[in-house]
Amino acid sequence: MASQTAPAVPQPTYRDGDFVPTREVPFSAELDEMIAEIRAGNAPNIGRFCGYCCAPMGETEACGICGESTEQTPAVDKIDRDLAQIYHAKRKREGLYVHLAAWSGILLATGLTILMILLLPGWTKVFAIIFLVLGGYFAGVFFGNVLIQGFAYRAGLKMFAKRWAAWRAGRMEAL
Ligand SMILES: [Zn+2]
């Protein structure tokens, strides 16, 4: 029985608000795209990937994401299934947050509309309907995109960092 010690969770690195891949959190946007394409059936799971973090390597001998050289760890020709699952889960998590935020915005606008219907006198209640149509739309877009995207982005990377560390630890144990 292998001992189950949870690896320390590495923190994603940000520069000017943008994520920077590191050896500890080697998230590859290119690999992310590739996995989505493979899952959609638009591409085969074949190529040349870093033996350490699985990022696509092209013809180079050093990984642009984690810095590992093929001398240290030979390149592989397939994306690890479990790792692909982690990338997919990250996408799903981000999508969920964006949806939740958009719906919160729409609910908020609806709540305000009801309040306006109750409070506005006579014919001015019509403004409540105008507000519902415009406000609901803008609130949905605003919450869904502007406010939450930064949050969803960071939350997704945090989840990725945790699962990646566990995946790597599991791999080391298997060696
Ligand atoms: Zn790498």
Number of strands: 2
> Which oligomeric form is depicted?
single chain
Strand content: under 5%
DSSP helix fraction: 55-70%
Order of helices and strands: EEHHH
Terminal Cα span: 14 Å
Evaluate the radius of gyration: 22 Å
Mean pLDDT: 89
Number of helices: 3
Which segments are poorly predicted (pLDDT under 50) over 5 or more consecutive residues?
Answer: none
Report on the biggest sheet: 2 strands, antiparallel
Strands across the major sheet, in which order? Answer: 1-2
- Total domain count: 2
Structural class designation: mainly alpha
Bound molecules: zinc ion
Globally, the shape reads elongated
Description:
This protein is mainly alpha-helical. The chain folds into two domains: 20-79, no CATH class; 80-169. 57% of the residues lie in helices and 3% in strands. It contains three helices and two strands, in the order ββααα. It has helices at 29-39, 81-119, 126-174; strands at 13-15, 18-20. It has a two-stranded antiparallel sheet with strand order 1-2. Strand 1 and strand 2 form a beta hairpin. Helix 2 (81-119) runs antiparallel to helix 3 (126-174). The longest helix is centred in the last third of the chain and has 49 residues, at 126-174. The protein is elongated and about 80 Å long. The model has no long low-confidence stretch (mean pLDDT 89). It binds zinc ion. Zinc ion (ZN) is lined by residues 26, 50, 52-53, 55, 63, 65-66, 68.
